[in-house]
Amino acid sequence: MNSQNGCTVWLTGLSGAGKTTLAQVLGERLRERGVGYELLDGDELRDRLSPGLGFSKQERDAHVRRAGYLCELLSRNGVITVAALISPYRAVRDELRARIPDFIEVYVECPLKELVRRDVKGLYRKALAGEIGNFTGVSDPYEPPHDPDVTVHTAEETPDASADRILATLERSGILKEFAAAPL
Amino acid sequence: MNSQNGCTVWLTGLSGAGKTTLAQVLGERLRERGVGYELLDGDELRDRLSPGLGFSKQERDAHVRRAGYLCELLSRNGVITVAALISPYRAVRDELRARIPDFIEVYVECPLKELVRRDVKGLYRKALAGEIGNFTGVSDPYEPPHDPDVTVHTAEETPDASADRILATLERSGILKEFAAAPL
Prior knowledge:
Two copies of one chain form a homodimer. Chain A is globular. Helix content of chain A is 43%, strand content 15%. The longest helix of chain A is centred in the middle third of the chain and has 20 residues. Chain A contains seven helices and five strands. Chain A has a five-stranded parallel sheet with strand order 2-3-1-4-5, sandwiched between helices. Chain A has a single domain, classed as Rossmann fold. Chain A is an alpha/beta fold. Chains A and B meet through helix 3 of A and helix 3 of B.
């Protein structure tokens, strides 16, 4: 059996809010600690689990459920699973929380105004011009968590600081042991 | 990190050939050894990964790819993953073999005549009467593996004997340590 408890750290938030960056920083921290972890990123998940699937509410919910099943299996096998998905609908996220024993919901928050200003991939410009449909935050709703385990404000804090707060939450809940960095 | 190497034991064969029974016996053996394992069974996988999906070649292939992605993630996180799926098409199974480092393909063979005789779920009768379409072995093809790692003949050997041969293969390939049962 695996020597650690698994869990699912579920990062939800708008496109461009910083979910992937935060997941990668979390991954580095978990690697330093020598614990088994897996990063599941929105784009790869779409590609492997739901190729060709669209972005209607029904299709998004189906995809989020699939990704959640994957998290559930990894978690119960002792893997710290970090999943980064827009996952805009509250009900289906709550469904996953009910199913997965250690489900840590992280709301990755960034004001839409700031996202439109950054617009790293140029998607918001296109969505606002009506060139992309079903775009979360513009033409599709985003339902923020009512009671997330952690809220990170990416316009106000660094990914490092956000990662530290998430790790502290995992320590408090007994999923991760407290970590003392090796002295220099 | 996990202390063991993971792998995927992929059971392919016709409906009723004995994949689920064999997976359960394998699971008991793995539990006795104290290794981390997961059983993925066809019906639950369909329900969680592909609800509402049909049985055309394209749909079956999509489902098998999804299930394979799940096996890939579990395997690389040190879990011995036993998947039982009809998975009738050779090309997509070979695709998984190419992707997953320790992929053990097990052909669960049973003559159609014997399956029709047993017909535990009454599905063959219906398929032969034309009441169920896309039924593997009757109205849909089954492509046996060309070079499976293990072939088990469920009409000729017990699930226990089949499980022993699969475990021996895992030991020979270095995935499992040799196991001496505790003396009585």
